[in-house]
Structures are given as structure tokens and as C-alpha cells.
Amino acid sequence: MKPSKIGLQDPVFFTTFAARKLMKNIRNFCIIAHIDHGKSTLADRLLQQTDTVADRDMQNQLLDNMDLERERGITIKSHAIQMKYTHEGEEYTLNLIDTPGHVDFSYEVSRSIAACEGALLIVDASQGVEAQTISNLYLALNHDLEIIPVLNKIDLPGADPEVVADEVIDLIGCKREDIILASGKAGLGIDDILKAVVTRIPAPKGDPEAPLQAMIFDSVYNSFRGVEVIFRIFNGTINKGDKIKFVNTGREYEADEIGILGLNQIPQQTMAAGNVGYLISGVKVAKEIKVGDTITHVKRPCDAAIQGFENVKPMVFAGIYPVETTDYEELRYSMEKLQLNDASLVWEPETSMALGFGFRCGFLGMLHMEIIQERLEREFDMTVITTVPSVQFKALMTDDTIQLINAPSDMPDPTRMKHIEEPYVKASIITAAEYVGAVITLCMDKRGQIKNQVYLTSERVELTFDMPLAEIVFDFFDRLKTISRGYASLDYELIGYQVSHMVRLDVMLNGEPVDALSAVVHRDKAYDWGRKLCEKLKELVPRQMFEIAIQAAIGQKIIARETVKAMRKNVLAKCYGGDISRKRKLLEKQKKGKKRMRQVGNVEIPQEAFMAVLKLD
């Protein structure tokens, strides 16, 4: 009997044969680039070229479905979509993942890279290679991805493709003919990119007959259908209705619906190795889904979980509190749902004397913190107060134990510790040659030590510094952009901890410490910081009927003070003429009242005061 007939008669053989044939024509790739180099616009053109989106549904930044992403013109979350493309008479399935470009969202990029075999490295032909370009490239190379370099925006008047192509060749060691010239806006070179994806990126490896092994690389919360899991199948086949299990959490579910991600979800009956898709299994509790977990079958489990990507390391810690203390539980639910959409958010409950119950949250950077606060307000209608951000310090105690300090309130008694270590980062800054002096001065002000200086071209310089992370998390990025007129780009990675002289700076209103305004700062900067903070608070704290003393202190020592003058009620208005003793009696009575009022009076601190710390110059 001919093998083809056996194949037709035996459904198992036939589906396996079909799955292998399909897998040969699948390409999984992501788009990586520095912020604002045109990833999303290029993704729009790819979707149009492959007829994935009808012209009537087309809009700019199509994959960026959050209002915030459109308003700011940045990608915050990775977005996966499937396209069909015909090359030399064969139809190929292209799974595209558009990734963010800002350093704060590099975790999204690392997860997307783990699900792909290739990457389009987009470089702006007018701005050249930037810090995040290099960082994302190394992420991709660590996963052995096939890199396709693309020079975007070649139609701009300031574009210099020849010089930028040399930078790309130096960076990845490719040939000049490997670099694709394109323009997302004008639609140039789009077909070349699609051909390169088909011909240069390898097909996924995997065995459709092996036990199911799929990795969760994203998840979305849907209020009607529960948690939608986005996964990539490495081995095996999944069918609708299968009993499945999440390896790390040990939870078992039924695959109620599986499918591929077009512009809308497209349900499927079966999906095999190599494919990217979504799974709905009626999970209602957010904690049961862990990004990076492995999905397998209950009856025929896989031997080992997939080693996807490491747990996220938060860089910046801040407290988030509800404005109304009664909203605490609602804020908890909101945070759980938000964590599904953004796995890099880390949080745990904490309490504050000034603000009540809230959460201590870990963020990847200041932009990430800002976005989370904005999303809580927009998507969940939660108005929150954010405390002063800080980084994680380590205190070596006298009994040789190590205590972690995530908030100023965790700071141990100085007599019980030997020293404090603070996290240091290796900061890579790429800027135009004319701004080198200003950038070095800024970094030195922030306690940075210059390690290296390399001229990428005669006009562009890469500076490498070792800097304390605490100095970067506040306004460093904004000031860097200001002094370089927007031309400098920054990328940083954690390199370890170094011994440092850190102190806890407390802010007191009328002698009462406000723990939400406390900060851990370097001893050399404490006086300056305390003075500026008191001046800022003086502008923001509303005047009362009594005098308010604003003080900054290190331990018992007051290092700065400002006074908010009392509003004065004119008690002498009804006195005209007459004896001075009557007026003096009234003034003495008012003085006693003000003193008593000051002892029992509460000072309401506005939300702007908590954010003022971030805006200190």
C-alpha cells in the first residue's frame, strides 16, 4: 500500500504530517529598536502589505490599543498578531510581536524574544545606533535569534544611510547587502522585509507528537471571559477541550477555547508546535497565571518546564495608597488585574502612619511608575497617592546578617549596622560629540565614575559610567535629554552593590514626622536635598489659622526649616478707640487659641506635595 494512502486513512499520521508541513512555513519574529525609531509604523505597513487589515480598519499605531500608547506615541506593551504571506507560490504564516523601545519596558522585550526565532533590528537612518538598540540586540543574540537589520526613515531629509549602515555593520558584523533600506511612513522596502523574514529566519523546531510543552509569554484580563493566556508551543499539539496543567502553579484546567491572534481572535480546533496563540480556560483568579510558566497535558505531561526568562528585578520602589482608605480592597483587585497585563509590576501590602493601608510596589523605572499610576486611574478609576520612590539598599548588621531596605521606614538603627550598600549600574550613554562635556559633568554630579569613552563615528560618542541607581531614578533621564537637546540616549544594567554613606532624611510638620515624605539619601547631598524639599513644601502646604513648621531632619538633628505663616483673623476690628489693655487682652486670648490649635490641628497634605519630591531641581 502507498504511504500517501496510509496517510489519508490514518488520521493521527495525517495530522502529524500536516502539522510538520505547516511548521515548515511558520516564522516567529519580533521587532526591536530604540524608542521612536518607527517600530509601530513599520508594523502597520507589514499588516497592510499582507492584507491582514482591511483599509477601512486601518489606523496609525494599529497594534498600540491603549489610549496612553497613542497619546504618548510609545509602545508600552508587546502585541502579537498573525499574518499570511505568499512567497514563490507557497503561503507562510508570520507571527509578529511588536515590542516597546523604552529602557523601562525591556522586560516586555525579553519575553517576546524568548518566543521567537528571529528579530527585525530597526535603526533610524537619521539618528543612528542608540543605547537601547545595542541593549535589545544583545538580548536577542543571547537567545541565538537571527537578526535582520533594517534602516528605517530613509526618506527623511536628515537621513544618512551610508554612515548609519557603517555603524550597524560595526555593531553586528553583517554585510552591507544584508541591511534593508525602508521607510514605514512612505511604505518603502516593506516587501524586502517580508521576503527576508521568510528566507532568513529559520522555521521553528519542535515535535508535534511529543508531550505538550508551551510557554506563557503574556496574559490579558478580560472581565467577561477571565484570564486570556498568550503562549508559544515548543513541542506537542493542543486541542480544544484538552485537560491542561500549568507546571509551576500545578493548577489544572480545560482548554475552553484556543486560537490564533489576528486583528481579532480566531478560534481553532487544534494547534501544533511552532505556533503562537491564545488560550481561555476560565481562570478567574489573577495569581494562578504566571508569565514564563509552562503549559502541558494532564494525562501526558512533559518532562521539564521550559527555561524561558528570569524573574523581573524591580529597580525603583514606591508606595501606592488609595486616597480614600475604604478603597483599599478595590485597589488590591485593580493591582492584581494590572499585574496580568504587566508582569513586571511587583507589589506587597504595607502601612503608613500618614496614609494608612497601601502597597509597596517595585517598578522598572520612573516612566514605568508613571504609566502604572495613569493606568490605575484610567482603566480602574482608582485615584492613588504615590510616595517618594527609592531603590533597594542592603544593610550589613553587626551580627553579620543582611537586611534589605526597600523603604525609608525599613532603615535599621545606625548603632546596629556596620554599613549600607547601594545598587550600582553600568550606564551606557550615546550622544553627539559636542555634548560630551555637559554629559560628563552631569554624571559626575550624580556621583558617577567614567569607565570608558568610545567614538562610534567622528560625531557620536559612547560613554560608559558606573553610577548609583538611586541617582538615576529621579530626574536623570530628563536632565540628560535637556543638556543634549534630546540627542543623548541612555541604557543601564545592574552590576552589583557598593558600600555607601546613606542616611534617612525625615520631613516633619509641626514636629510630627510624615513617613510618606521620608527618603534615603547620600550624606553629602542630604543638606541640599532637605533645604530644597522644605522650600518646595512651603509653596504647596496650604496656610492654616496656625503657624506650620516644616523641618528636615537626620535622626535628631534638624538640618533645614521653613515656616508657613498663619492666616490672621483681625480680632481688633470691633475695637475702636478705648483703652489699649482691652486690645491686648483680645490679642493674648487669640495667641492662646492659636497655640492650642497648633497642638491639636491637623495639616492636610495635598497630593502634589508627595509628587513634589520628584520635581526637585
Commentary on this structure:
The protein contains 16 helices and 31 strands. The strands form six sheets. Strands 11-10-16-7-8-15-12-13 form an eight-stranded antiparallel sheet. The chain has five domains: 13-200, P-loop containing nucleotide triphosphate hydrolases (Rossmann fold), CATH 3.40.50; 213-297, Elongation Factor Tu (Ef-tu), domain 3 (Beta Barrel); 316-389, Elongation Factor G (Translational Gtpase), domain 3 (Alpha-Beta Plaits), CATH 3.30.70; 394-500, Alpha-Beta Plaits (2-Layer Sandwich), CATH 3.30.70; 504-615, Alpha-Beta Plaits, CATH 3.30.70. The radius of gyration is 29 Å and the shape is globular. It is α+β, with helices and mostly antiparallel strands. Helix 1 (3-9) packs across helix 2 (11-24).
**Strands in their spatial order, largest beta sheet:** 11-10-16-7-8-15-12-13
Kindly provide the name of the CATH class of the largest domain: Alpha Beta
> How many angstroms does the end-to-end distance come to?
83 Å
Q: Could you say which overall geometry the principal axes of the C-alpha atoms support?
A: globular
The appropriate CATH architecture of the largest domain is 3-Layer(aba) Sandwich
What's the CATH H-level homologous superfamily of the largest domain? P-loop containing nucleotide triphosphate hydrolases
Helix content: 25-40%
List segments where confidence is low: pLDDT < 50 over at least 5 consecutive residues: 1-14
User: How much of the polypeptide forms β-strand, as a percent range?
Assistant: 25-35%
How many separate domains make up the residues?
A: 5
Largest sheet: number of strands, sense, barrel closure: 8 strands, antiparallel
Protein structure class: alpha+beta
List how many beta strands DSSP finds: 31
Distinct helical segment count: 16
